[in-house]
């Protein structure tokens, strides 16, 4: 079955620690996205990548970093500079640049210890 | 200011009734609007897309309307079932730059 796989489902971060969230897709989609979801708020775009080896900052990129070394993989690192990292993180993809239909993974809940 | 708003209060309805969810926006120029369903602890799932020149779109028990004059989209689920209980998100794709803006979602609960 084609889809997007996010791991882990739950992640705990200690203060001062960097953590990496995994996102893998086998849909052969060019574009991939990372969103953050907080209770009572709409999804907010962190980073996106429209092609391998290229990515752009979204609306709330500070304290996060990404890489896109392979078409199917788009990992997100939450650095120690992100002071309020507790949130539900969602990875998504689209076939091309048009955001007509996003395919989402099942999310990673990140909490601070 | 620009904003997109959905009813923040949960919508509770009886099984078999029609559920109507609202998505309002201000100061955006959307190319099209999307609706997604999200279950607790899961990622959103795409349901429907309606373009700015379309008034209405249907898919099985779902109907979406889009009024660019009122700056509003209505999402209807007819003959609702308990399995329809979830949070529903609307999202605008803007004409300029193709940016995607999500509403905060409305929780729907259908009681048997």
Polypeptide structure, described:
The complex is a heterodimer of chains A (113) and B (112). Chain A has strands at 4-7, 10-13, 19-25, 31-37, 44-51, 54-57, 64-66, 76-78, 87-94, 103-104, 108-112. Chain A contains no helices and 11 strands. In chain A, the strands form 2 sheets. In chain A, strands 2, 4, 5, 6, 9, 10 and 11 form a 7-stranded mixed sheet that branches. The model of chain A has no long low-confidence stretch (mean pLDDT 94). Chain A is mostly beta strands. Chain B is an all-beta fold and 112 residues long. Chain B contains no helices and 11 strands. In chain B, strands 2, 4, 5, 9, 10 and 11 form a 6-stranded mixed sheet that branches. A 5-stranded antiparallel sheet of chain B has the order 1-3-8-7-6, with no helix packed on it. The A-B interface holds A 4, 6, 35, 40-45, 90, 92, 97-107, 109 and B 4, 8, 32, 34, 36, 41-46, 49, 89, 91, 93, 98, 100-105.
Short synopsis of the structure:
The complex is a heterodimer of chains A (113) and B (112). Chain A has 113 residues and is mainly beta.
Task: Set down the secondary structure blueprint.
The complex is a heterodimer of chains A (113) and B (112).
Chain A: E1 4-7, E2 10-13, E3 19-25, E4 31-37, E5 44-51, E6 54-57, E7 64-66, E8 76-78, E9 87-94, E10 103-104, E11 108-112
Parallel strand pairs in A: 2-11
Antiparallel strand pairs in A: 1-3, 3-8, 4-5, 4-9, 5-6, 7-8, 9-10, 9-11
Chain B: E1 3-6, E2 11-14, E3 19-26, E4 30-38, E5 45-51, E6 56-59, E7 62-67, E8 72-77, E9 86-94, E10 100-102, E11 106-111
Parallel strand pairs in B: 2-11
Antiparallel strand pairs in B: 1-3, 3-8, 4-5, 4-9, 6-7, 7-8, 9-10, 9-11
Order of helices and strands of chain B: EEEEEEEEEEE
Number of helices of chain A: 0
- Give the rounded overall mean pLDDT of chain B: 94
The share of residues in extended strands of chain B comes to: over 45%
**Radius of gyration of chain A over all CA atoms, rounded:** 13 Å
> Tally of extended strands of chain A?
11
Q: How are helices and strands ordered from N to C of chain A?
A: EEEEEEEEEEE
Mean pLDDT of chain A: 94
- Proportion of residues in helical segments of chain A: under 10%
Tell how many strands the DSSP assignment of chain B holds: 11
**Which regions of chain B are unreliable across 5 or more consecutive residues at pLDDT < 50?**
none
Q: What is the helix content of chain B? A: under 10%
């Amino acid at each position: 079955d084609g889809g997007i796989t996010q791991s882990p489902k739950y992640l705990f971060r200690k203060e001062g620690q960097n953590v990496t969230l995994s996102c893998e897709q086998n849909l052969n989609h060019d574009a991939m996205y990372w969103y953050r979801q907080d209770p009572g708020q709409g999804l907010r775009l962190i980073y996106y990548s429209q092609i391998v080896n290229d990515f752009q900052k979204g609306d709330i990129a500070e304290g996060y970093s990404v890489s896109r070394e392979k078409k199917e993989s788009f990992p997100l690192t939450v650095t120690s500079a992100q002071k309020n990292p507790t949130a539900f993180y969602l990875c998504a993809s689209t076939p091309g640049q048009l955001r007509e239909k996003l395919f989402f993974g099942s999310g990673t809940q990140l909490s601070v210890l | 200011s620009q904003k997109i708003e959905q009813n923040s209060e949960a919508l509770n309805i009886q099984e078999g009734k029609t559920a109507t969810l609202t998505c309002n926006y201000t100061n955006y120029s959307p190319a099209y609007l999307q609706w997604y369903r999200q279950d607790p602890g899961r990622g959103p799932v795409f349901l429907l897309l309606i373009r700015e020149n379309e008034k209405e779109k249907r898919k099985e028990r779902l109907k979406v309307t889009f009024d660019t004059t009122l700056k509003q989209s209505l999402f209807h689920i007819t003959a609702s079932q308990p399995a329809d209980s979830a949070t529903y998100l609307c999202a605008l794709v803007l004409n300029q730059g193709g940016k995607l803006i999500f509403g905060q979602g409305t929780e729907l609960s259908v009681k048997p």
